[in-house]
Each structure stands twice: as structure tokens, then as C-alpha cells.
Amino acid sequence: MTIYALSSGPGISGIAVTRVSGNKAKDILKSIINGKFPDERVATLKKIINPRTNELIDEGIVIWFKGPNSYTGEDMIEFHTHGSKAVVNKLQNILEQFDGCRIAEAGEFTKLAFQNNKINLLKAESIGDLIVAETELQRQQALRIMSGVSSNKFNLWRDELIKMLGEIEAKIDFPDEDLPVDISNTIKSNAKRINEEIEKTLDDDKTGEIIREGFKVAIIGPPNVGKSSLLNYLSKREAAIVSEKAGTTRDVIEVHLDIEGIPIIICDTAGIRDSNDEIENRGVKLAISRAEDADLNIILLDPRNVDFKGFFNNHIEDKSIIVINKSDLGVDNLPILKTNIIPILISIKENKNVDKLIDQIKIKLKNQFLKNDNVLITRSRHRYHLKECNKHLSRFLEKKNNEDYDKAAEDLRLSIRHIGTIVGRVDVEEILGSIFENFCIGK
């Protein structure tokens, strides 16, 4: 089978890149260019023609990659043509006419690269993350994983566990031979070390997943303190309706922001108050739920409403910033200023001190989540399998008697299997679809 797809972005552009990969790539290239066949991995200017009519389609750069020295590991072509829809559509129509040549599915080029051992599963995932990265922090994290920082560590643990398993299975195969004491002690010592290293890796506040998805920041507070106005100010657009009427916001409104490279999902919530309106009460419950789930809460008040009884008392914590809006109305003698709580005084109307709030958001998130540059886990899939690996490794360490060798070996096998699943060193067909379906066509 041979596949093709537009690999550059859709729409009008100066240049469009169309990829073709598969066993018929060479024959296709011979058919639709004139003159000498291009040298391998050399950008060559060629006239691209319709082989049936000899009609000129375009003149562009052609690059020939002979497998396995290509991205997919198969014979592959790149056509760099002019980026008009007419040229791209005409080229794809020509490619479709070749027997056994079809348009690629989402992520199929990268899936082929994985299946042909050109990349491991972690690198495949990081390529997908790099494609959709919206902020500098996401870009940096994707590149770190692509460089092998995670896969190298996971493979090192896996290789060490396989070596231990070999020693244990030797004892099972030769039961009359006692496992030397020094080897037995070394196995236990190494297993304990790996167990502790994995526990330390898991204790990362889920920073990798949060960076990949975005930090969740909730704006909470009573009605009419300016929550929707703050959301609109930060997003630089009218994302939420602003009204003097209390209870306007009923549902949660989310906006994705890039604050100096930090990915943030900030949400406006319903004003917290007691109400006889059933729909508003549902909005209040949603607001409380978002506050509990958020990585950071902005508790927004104004000089007319600084009562911290009940709900607000429960949310003055490390993951909260206290903000008093409408400071232009006057903040002298506010009771909160006489406590040990230091709020940020802002005025969205007069554009006063909002920059200080943004700085505090960055400081809070960096202090809580961005202290460690050695994050290895970026997806819940990685975390699940590492936890399972550690669970079986802990069971292995609990084995005391020589009669437990069979059970100990099984614990190690399961540990190896789970850690191998992360990098794709075991059967992973059941997870391939969910990973590659989010890729764009042509990647």
C-alpha cells in the first residue's frame, strides 16, 4: 500500500508539501516527472506532469527518500509545489489514480515510522504534542521528550529489570543451584532503587500533563465584582457577557491564554451566592466544582463585598490569589486590609494594577509546578503504567522465601510489561489508534 497527503498546512500558501510513502512511490515519481530520476535526498527542480495527458501540473522541488532512510522507513517522496488549492488538488487527483495509492489517515505517516522502528512510542506522542503546541512551555516540553529524555530513562529501568528477571529465571530453571547471596542482595538492592526512582518520578504534581493540557485557573467570587470583565481583559476580546445585572453568568466560560509561554485555561464562573433560581444554583455548583479542580483560583471581590465567611474562608489557601477589583471606588478602612491577607488592588475599568495580577499568576504557577526540569511523564497513560510497574515491583520486594521465586518472576515480568508499554516495547496495538487519531492528515 502507498499513501499520500498534504503535510503542510491547508489553505493558500507560497509552498505546499505533499508526501507520498510506500512501495509504489518510486514508480509514481518516475511517471509524473520528466528527465533524469532525482538523486536520493537531493532537492531537485522538476516539471510535474499528468502521466495520462502529459499536461503540466506545476514546476517545483522534488525530494526522493529511499527506504529505510526516510521518515516512515519506506520509499518516500516530497513534492514542494506552489501552495494554491488548484495545484494541490490536481496533484492529489493524479496520485489517487495510481492503483494501490490512497490518501493517508490521520497520523499514518508517524504510525508507519513507529511500526518500522524509526521512532519509539514516546517520540511519536511528542511529535503530536509539538504539532499542537500553542505556547513556549509546551514547545520546550515536547522537544525534551523528542530528545529521548523520558524514553532513555524508561528503557534503562526496563533493561535493568530484564537482567534481574534473567537471574531469577535461572534459579527457576536450575532449582538445585542456590542463587549466590551477593547476586540475591544485588537484585533486591537494584529493585529497591528503581522502585524509589519511580516513586520520585510519580511525585511530580502531574506537571507534565498540566503543561500539555494547560494550567486551570478559575475566577471565582460573588456576583457583580467584575469576573467576566477580568476574563475579557485577559483574553483581549469579548469572551463573556458583562452586565450590571447580578447572575448574568450561569455556565462556565473557558478561554485559552498564552501568558509569557505558560499555557493557561482561565474560566469565568457564576457568582457565588444563595439564590432561589434553580439554573443559577446549578451555575454556583459548577463554580465551586471548578474552584476545587483548578490549579489556581483568583478570588475576586470589590470594596462593597469583602465578606470571607463560608465559602471564601475555605478557599484562602496556597492555590489562591485574593484580588479586590473596583479599587477606584475607594479602599480605605477595608476590614481585609487589617488582616494578614495581602490582596492585590486592581481596577479593570481604569486598567490599574492588572499587570501585577498577571505577574502573581505567573509566580504562583512557577513556584507550584515549574520547580523541576526533570519531568518525565506527560500523559495519563504514562502515569498509569508507571504506577502499575511500581505496584508489581513493590510486590516483588515483599517476597522473602526461596519458594517464592516463581511468584517473584511473575511480578518482574508484569513490571517489565508495564514499563515497556510506555515506550512501545510490547504489544501496543490497542493504544495506537487513540494516540495517532489526533494527528493531522499528512503527519
What order do the SSEs take from the amino end to the carboxyl end, as H and E?
A: EEHEEEHEHHHHHHEHEEHEEEHHHH
CATH topology-level name of the largest domain = Rossmann fold
Low-confidence stretches: none
End-to-end Cα distance? 17 Å
Largest sheet: 6 strands, mixed
Classified by CATH, the class of the largest domain is Alpha Beta
Give the number of DSSP strands.
12
Strand content: 15-25%
Mean pLDDT: 84
Put simply, the count of helices is 14
How does the helix and strand content classify structurally?
alpha/beta
Folded structure, characterized:
The chain has 443 residues and is of the alpha/beta class. The chain has three domains: 103 residues, 2-Layer Sandwich (Gyrase A, domain 2), CATH 3.30.1360.120; 111 residues, tRNA modification GTPase MnmE domain 2 (Four Helix Bundle (Hemerythrin (Met), subunit A), Up-down Bundle); 159 residues, Rossmann fold. The protein contains 14 helices and twelve strands. The chain is flat, with a radius of gyration of 29 Å. The mean pLDDT is 84.
